[in-house]
Design a protein that fits this description.
single chain; 71 residues; four-stranded antiparallel sheet; 7 strands; globular
């Protein structure tokens, strides 16, 4: 789960996988944030401008994709 969404920049992302890689892309497909070995539940995107982004959670199974809205 990803919450709050929409949010102001600090999100909580719960994943059952202990360590995973996260990538955040803009609507134009530009990689704007990458976090390797993500094991916590806090995802700070407060440095990004307001808008919509795509979170790609890289796993051994198909990549999980979620929409993030910064307001």
């Amino acid at each position: 789960d990803l919450f709050p969404n929409p949010g102001g920049g600090l999100f909580f992302y719960k994943t059952p996988i202990v360590q995973t890689d996260l990538k955040v892309f803009s609507l134009s497909g530009e990689l704007v944030h990458q976090q390797t070995n993500f094991s916590g539940d806090r995802l700070d995107l407060s440095f990004l401008p307001v808008g919509m982004y795509f979170l790609h959670h890289l796993t051994d199974v198909p990549t999980v994709r979620k929409v993030i809205i910064l307001k």
